[in-house]
Predict the structure.
Amino acid sequence: MKILLSILFLSLSFWARAGYDYTPVIVHLNKEKQHDSVGFNIVEELPRLLYKKLLEGELKLYTNASKELVIDPSNLIKLEQDNHIRFDAVPDLFVNELWSKLGRRFEFKILGFSFFARKKDNSLLNFGFIDIMDIKDQLISTLISTNANGGNELNMWDAIHSKAYPFQIVKFGGHDLVKKPELAIKLKKKAMCQKVQPNTYKIPMSKRVWSTVYPSKEIGLDNKLICQSLEGYYQKNKHEVLEFILIPDLHIRKNYPIIVTEVELEELWTWDNDLITKKIVRIRPSVNGVPLGYLSWNNLKEKNILRDFRALTDLLEDHNYAANITQINDEIIEREYRIGVSNNLNKSYFNKILIRTN
């Protein structure tokens, strides 16, 4: 037995160095091990996405990757009830793939997914297998939820094909590597190292950032000018304010004071090495605490709002203002993290924007 294991180890080690043609591989992803710096959690999102279609019988759930038997919705529900765990809460995802590494070129193809949980006795519970081609359109059309450390507007298909998440090889070419973690790590490193050109999807280095500008009187900043620019515009176009404020009295409506109390900015931040480009997508002013309609960047250009001979668009593009970052991608930024997040954003720490202390 020891001789056979030694031969296996040597042969797989040779494959890792020399290369191999399309070889069946199974990789394992655990939900708890998808750390924040990844920016998204495939194991959490994928079962949630598919669950409704499975219950409605619109998607085939096979017993295993051979796809000989199908688990119908009633049996799926029974499986959940018998084991007190829902399909959309499974903690472990196994991905059937084909890997090829020839020279400095690495290619992989995903075949499908198996969903696993643990029973009360800690034995594995197999919820079944789904062929990736049965859900390709759904994966492409669905954006995955991304936190502050992730990219902007990433669909599920691209996220899965990015391999920018923690995983471990558990089977390679029919060989079980669960008890050979050092060999699994070696195979993974050789396939994903910097010298290799993989066909993985490269996640765009961009984020959607929301922040709020208040009419600060701090010297040297343009906060006050930005708010005053909008106040002047709305004084002349009061109807754009009053449609959001329900005041039946005509006299009060006519004399309604226009005070811009804050301006919400929505921006697209793009990283190119150490260079960060900030592009304002739209703004949303609030008058007396009441949010008004959104103004796109093109709207602002067309309106040509001026204050002290300076265009509002120029004031915003100069970024000479203090702003509280409130949201990045799909994640609301809690008050206690805002200063640290702001510092990290401007230091080009793309996937280390929000570092939690707990």
Q: What stands out?
A: The chain has two domains: 2-198, 206-345.
